């Protein structure tokens, strides 16, 4: 679904797709159990030593409790592991949020997308063959052809009349992972070089030796809007997560700025990408 012209706030768009539905179901179960125990969000937050806004995000399906928080919730609600089983069987096996629901719509509205990647290249900048290899390696339960098609469809944002500015920071190790084999890896790097010729795509490589890499914990994207709040997407081994709270966004932006300050220039980065591309077919 494409966003409507009068749809100006990314926060107003409900999650859709398998991942979003699973999260909404899980959040509703949390709310039902909280209300059965006559707890307000504020009182539950106090007992868990978290913010009331975090409880709201759990119940709205925007975030999922950590295992530690989930264990405490099981104790409070006396649910005997039901919530944990829902999380493991339903939420964590659902299609990652990247391919369905809110994030593609957020990408479509953004004026700038800042991202950091350590092992694979950004989904918006992947070739179809590389995307297929990445998704296959991820051992997703969903149909790979559908996931590849969805990822390619996301890339249509680059064909817009006014596409977002993309600033992608890529840790050097990602250049040397042979995902899909030498030819796929080579073609992906060549594709990155071609994309870097666009005025709206900036690719910078962060050398593996940069100390700041030690503080990097996982890939993320920050979407910026003209006159609106930032929204981020954080990826992990289980599922993607849309981040909207101000404190987390400030932390992500600081990480991005720190890593970008240590990155090679665009020209130096592309020279390195070209060098590694030649190595894959030599």
Describe the overall structure.
The protein is of the alpha/beta class. The chain folds into two domains: 14-91, Orthogonal Bundle (434 Repressor (Amino-terminal Domain)); 97-281, Endonuclease, Chain A, CATH 3.30.870. Helix content is 49%, strand content 11%. It is built from twelve helices and six strands. The protein has helices spanning 17-36, 41-48, 52-59, 67-77, 82-91, 102-109, 128-137, 144-154, 173-176, 182-195, 246-262, 266-281; strands spanning 112-117, 165-171, 201-206, 220-224, 231-234, 241-243. It has a six-stranded mixed sheet, with helices on both faces. A hairpin with a 6-residue loop joins strand 5 and strand 6 (241-243). Helix 10 (182-195) runs antiparallel to helix 12 (266-281). The longest helix is centred in the N-terminal third of the chain and has 20 residues, at 17-36. The chain is elongated and about 65 Å long. Residues 1-19 and 93-100 have low confidence and may be disordered.
């Amino acid at each position: 679904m494409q966003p409507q012209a009068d749809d100006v706030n990314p926060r107003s768009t409900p999650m859709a797709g398998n991942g979003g539905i699973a999260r909404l179901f899980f959040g509703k179960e949390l709310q039902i159990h909280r209300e059965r125990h006559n707890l307000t969000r504020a009182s539950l937050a106090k007992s868990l030593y978290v913010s009331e806004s975090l409880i709201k995000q759990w119940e709205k399906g925007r975030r999922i409790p950590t295992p530690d928080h989930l264990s405490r919730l099981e104790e409070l609600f006396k649910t005997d592991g039901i919530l944990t089983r829902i999380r493991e069987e339903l939420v964590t096996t659902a299609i990652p949020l990247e391919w369905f629901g809110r994030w593609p719509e957020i990408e479509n509205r953004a004026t700038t997308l800042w991202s950091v990647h350590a092992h694979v290249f950004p989904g918006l900048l992947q070739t179809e063959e590389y995307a297929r290899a990445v998704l296959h390696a991820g051992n997703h339960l969903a149909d790979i052809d559908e996931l590849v098609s969805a990822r390619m469809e996301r890339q249509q944002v680059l064909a817009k009349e006014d596409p977002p500015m993309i600033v992608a920071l890529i840790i050097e190790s990602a250049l040397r992972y042979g995902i899909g084999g030498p030819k796929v890896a080579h073609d992906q790097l060549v594709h990155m070089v071609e994309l870097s010729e666009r005025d709206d795509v900036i690719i910078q490589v962060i050398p593996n030796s940069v100390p700041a890499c030690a503080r990097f914990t996982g890939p993320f994207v920050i979407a910026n809007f003209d006159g609106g709040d930032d929204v981020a997407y954080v990826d992990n081994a289980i599922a993607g997560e849309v981040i909207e709270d101000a404190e987390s966004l400030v932390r992500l932006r600081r990480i991005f700025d720190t890593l970008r300050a240590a990155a090679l220039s665009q020209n130096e980065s592309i020279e390195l990408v070209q060098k590694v591309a030649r190595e894959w077919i030599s």
